[in-house]
Amino acid sequence: MKIAAVLGPMTLIMGLSILIYAPQWRKLEERWEKDHFELFSMMLFSGAIGLIIINMYNVWEWNVWLIVTIAGWSALLKSVVYFLLPGSTWKSLMKFSKSMIYFGGLVTAVLGAVLTYYVYIK
Prior knowledge:
single chain, mainly alpha, 6 helices
């Protein structure tokens, strides 16, 4: 499961970063909220990564690897939403996500830890 070998540690690191540096992440989100076009290349990359994951691994079985499938679909969906919804809607979604930063960081870190555990330890 080579995708999980990359996705797990990166997701764990990202989640821990969000939890440890939440004020800095909020500042970054505020910047993106003011100018959502700064996200263009990241959303293009997110869509490409989502499609790669979906094409390499798209298995809907109830096990830990379902995290990989959901991550791929989530990345693609986020990219589609970014490119197809009006900027005002995207900014509203970003305002909501700012209020959920600690929850999002915790969920991200836990999912990354689970994948990392299953790939490298178990």
